[in-house]
Amino acid sequence: MSATPNRLARTLQRIEALPALLRQPARNLALRRAVPFTGTAGLDFVALTPARTEIAVRNRRPVQNHIQGVHAAAMALLAETATGMVVGMNVRDDCLPLCKSMHVDFKKRATGAMRAEASLSEQQRASMRAEPKGEVTVTVVVTDEAGVNPVECEFVWAWIPKTPKN
């Protein structure tokens, strides 16, 4: 099987061939169209590879809570999107990724903008390429502008065969 196993990874690989100035806006446009809620929240797709993703959100009014920090739901969305993108770049085209569970512990008050980095091991990626269904716990680290980890998250993603459309 190829190093870019699915349509999402191939699309992102084509975007990486664009001039540097156009890559980020093209990535954001493509992914916000595919998953409209990420555009509503203003998520910024900083880095996307089959092994690692990095996604950011600015602390701006539409995602703020009552104390002008990034809202808890926006933090969870940020972490879920980072884990979902890294899984989405590794599942086969004949499979569908699904978030099976998420656990988010809020540890400290967040300061400013936030960033989530999710990754998969080579063993996890190989399993997703080889197996028609399974599940994986995805590592994600969420940091705020001060470099603090205000939340600890664990996401379990499953992948299952797509059912044919009738």
Automatic annotation (TrEMBL):
<dbReference type="InterPro" id="IPR029069">
    <property type="entry name" value="HotDog_dom_sf"/>
</dbReference>
<dbReference type="InterPro" id="IPR027961">
    <property type="entry name" value="DUF4442"/>
</dbReference>
<protein>
    <submittedName>
        <fullName>DUF4442 domain-containing protein</fullName>
    </submittedName>
</protein>
<dbReference type="Pfam" id="PF14539">
    <property type="entry name" value="DUF4442"/>
</dbReference>
